[in-house]
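Quick question about two entries, pasted in order.
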Amino acid sequence: MRIPAQSVCTAIRDDIVSGVFARGSRLTEELLARRYGVSRVPVREALRTLESEGFVTTRRHAGACVAEPTEREAADLLEVRTLLEPLGAARAAQRRTDAHLKVLRGLVRLGQERARRGEGEDLRSLGSWFHETLAQASGSPGLTALLTQLRHKIAWMYAVEQAARPAEAWAEHGAIVDAVARGDAERARALTALHAERAVAAHRLRHPGPERERERGPERVRTSQRAVNTGSGRH
C-alpha cells in the first residue's frame, strides 16, 4: 500500500513541532523514509508541502533543513492570528450549523467544569478543540486551513502559560458562543478579538533566535523508526 504524502507530512510536521527535529537540522529523504517506514516519494512530496508552510527550508549544498524562524516572524504569527480568529468568529455567526453550536456549547460546559476543578491539562486540549470547532463553523475551508496552520506554527514556536484565571477565559468562550448562536457577527468578532489579544500575553518563545541557537550547538535528532499513522485523526 502506498502511504499518502499527507500522512507523511503530518508525521514530519508533528516531529518538528514537538522538537524531535531541531531547528536548522538537515532532513534527508533517506533518514525520513527510514524513520517513517516509507519510500522517498511521499517524503519528497511532504517536504515540498512543509516548505510552503514555512516549517522547512532548502539550503544550497545542504538540501532540506528545519526552518529557523526569527523572533519577529514568530511575533507576526501571533498578530496574524489576532486578525484572522475574529474574522472566523464573525463568519461562524452567519454560517454555523446546529451541530457546530452543539459542540461549542458542550466544550464550554466542559471547560467551565474543568476550570472549577483546576484541571489544567484538560483545559489546554479543550481550548484547542474549541478554537478548531469555531474555525470550522466559519464555513470557509480556506480560512480554517490558515488558522490550523497558524496553530501548528505557534505551538512550534511558543509555550503557552496556563491562564491565571481559567474560569474567566472560559466565560469569554461562552460569551463568544452566545454571540455566534444569536447570529451577531459584530459582537462575535469583537469578543474574539479581545480574547485573542489577552491570550498573546501567555505566549513565551520556546527557543532563542537562530544566532544564539547556533552558539549553543546542534541538538541530537532521534532517528529510530516511527510508523506513519494513516488514519484520519484530528490535527
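Here is the second entry:
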Amino acid sequence: MKITYYGHSALLVESSDAAVIIDPFLSGNPKSGISPEEIKVDAVLLTHGHSDHLGDAIEIAKNNNCPIFAVFELAEYCRIKGAQVKHMNIGGSHTYAGITVKYTPAIHSSSFQEGDTWIYTGQAAGILLTMGGKTLYHAGDTALFGDLRLIGERNAIDISALPIGDMLTMGPDDALLAARWLRAEKVIPLHYNTFPAIAQDGADFCDRLRQEGIEGFPLLPGESIEI
C-alpha cells in the first residue's frame, strides 16, 4: 500500500490492483500541490459532506468514470450532481475493484452549502480501507470517542490517519489517545495547518507518538509512504 498526502485530509492510496482518493479537497486548497485533473483512480471515498472533504470528488469521479463511496445522503447528493455512487452507511462494508471499504462512526457534523441553503449530507464517518493486503483507517473529522477502542480491537489496522487540528476536530492530546486505542503501529496526522484556526505542529505530534512506540509520519503535500 502506497499512501500519498495532498494536504488537509486528502490521501491517495494505491496498491498493485487499484487506486482510490479519500476526501479530495484539492482545487480549493492552495497547499494540495495537485489538480483534480491529475488524479487517476478507481474510486473516490468520502467521510462527510463538508466542502473541505467533498472537495473535487464529483469532478474526479466523472473524469475517471468511477464511483464515489459515501454515506447514503451524501451519495445521493453526488448522484444528483451526475456522479456514479456507492450508497454506504455506518457499519456497512462493500468490496469493489480490489478494495474493501467499511464505514465506521465519527462524531462530527456533515452538510454542504449551496447559496444560502445548507444541505444535510448524512452522518459523518470514518473509513476502514483494505487493499493490497493492508488496512488503513481514515478517521475523517471526529472527536475522541470510546468506540475508537472497539474499532482497534475488531480490526487489524496497519496505519491510521487522524485529525489533530483541534477546534473543529480532536486535537493532538485526544489524537494521541485515539492512536493508542486503535492499536496501529503507524499514524499520519491530518486536518491541520490548512487554516490558521487549525495550526498545529505535526512533527511534535509524531515525536509524542514515538514516545508511545508508534511511528508517526508528518507528511508534506505530495509526500508518500509505503507499507
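Reply: The chain has six helices and 16 strands. The first helix runs from residue 51 to 54. Hope that helps.
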